[in-house]
Amino acid sequence: MKYYLIAGEASGDLHASNLMQALKEKDEKAKFRFFGGDLMQKVGGTLVKHYRELAFMGFIPVLLNLKTILRNLEICKKDIIEFAPDVVILVDYPGFNLKIAKYIKQNTTIPVTYYISPKIWAWKEYRIHSFKKYVDQMLCILPFEVDFYKKHNYPVNYVGNPTVDAIRKRANSTQTFQEFVALNRLPNKPIIALLAGSRKQEITDNLPVMLKSIEKFDSHQVIIAGAPGIEKDFYQKNIANKDVELIFGQTYEILAQADAALVTSGTATLEAALLNTPQAVCYKTPVPKLAYWGFKHILKTPYISLVNLIAGKEVVKELFAKFFTIDIIQEETRKLLFDTKYRQKMLQEYQQIQETLGTENTSNKAAKLIYDKISN
User: Fold this and answer.
1) Is 28 helix (H, G, I), strand (E, B) or coil?
2) pLDDT digit string, tens, across residues 176-233
3) Per DSSP, what are the bridge partners of residue 280?
4) Are strands 87-91 and 112-115 parallel, antiparallel or unpaired?
5) Which of 49-63, 155-169, 271-285 holds the top average pLDDT?
6) 43, 47, 107, 213: which one has the fewest Cβ atoms less than 10 Å from its Cβ?
7) Residues 376/88, Cβ–Cβ less than 8 Å
């Protein structure tokens, strides 16, 4: 069978690569072509465009890069037609992927599977109509998404959460603190981890404030987990002369050894919870007071982090919009590091989240559903 996949960011690259590996185990003749990243390329197949060329976020960056975005859409449409796959698999990234789904359904008979539902339950709920029209198979990774789609009479499958798989299968899962610091030639000091996002705009917005907020914690060393696809020089511009370490390719290891983490909202918040790292979610928004009003009155979700959404309550502090200040982040970091009861309560809540997500092999289940659908 021939599979065409589209992933537009680092987390999509990770989950799509695991799905591809599972599909290869089901289908020994599997051929892949994709918009994605390095991890997908390692599995095999043809990389048409790297997600670095797709990752534009926010109204102004999208507007400034509109020609590039439209050109990428046309390249993708044409490439799918020429490849003539047995299925197109879309991984999150709705702004781009829904346009592709519409084109495929209106111009071909190729089935469309969506793996990792976009967060339309938070906003843009109207997109449900597009899914009904253009997507043949929806595979969800968050338990509460099933009820959301059921409410709209749209059948979906819950396949478990791929981040659980990624954490379980990670390299160096038994690595000790001493082994980690020795490997990276670091001082023997406890760690504060910073994960400032996977896109350049997020890093520019969040990292300088994060760094300023933790300057006074001399008892700890600060390690920035470098995002895939972001150059070291780009980070250095935002780090300036701060005494911190920047390490690439060891995000799970850094989180596993950290006493606490400041994390920009996204998959990384769930990764921190699954690795039992106390955290605060930090996210800068333009016009903070207005942004917070919009969150309270326009978005249809009470939280921005996956941890709190899965738990259905506040487990970690969400320091965004008007709460994204140096003083507030600094105080929350102090509690994460030194308030034992506060830390323990968060860790106990993490255990509940882990039980909710279960231990099912998500990639295998998703691969089976996809393969069975196109084989029949």
Assistant:
1) coil
2) 999 999 999 999 999 999 999 988 889 999 999 999 999 999 999 999 999 988 999 9
3) 262
4) parallel
5) 271-285
6) 107
7) no
Angle between helices 340-357 and 267-274 (to 10 degrees): 100
| Cα→Cα distances 164→199, 254, 353, 356, Å | 23, 17, 11, 11
**Residue found under tokens 């892949």:** 32
Strands (E), 92-200: 112-115, 137-140, 157-158, 191-195
Q: pLDDT tens digits, residue range 355-365?
A: 999 887 999 99
Helix axes 200-213, 326-338, angle to 10 degrees: 70
- Specify the DSSP element, H or E, that contains 41: helix 38-43
Q: Where are the beta strands (DSSP E) in the chain?
A: 2-7, 31-36, 46-50, 87-91, 112-115, 137-140, 157-158, 191-195, 221-226, 245-248, 260-263, 279-283, 318-320
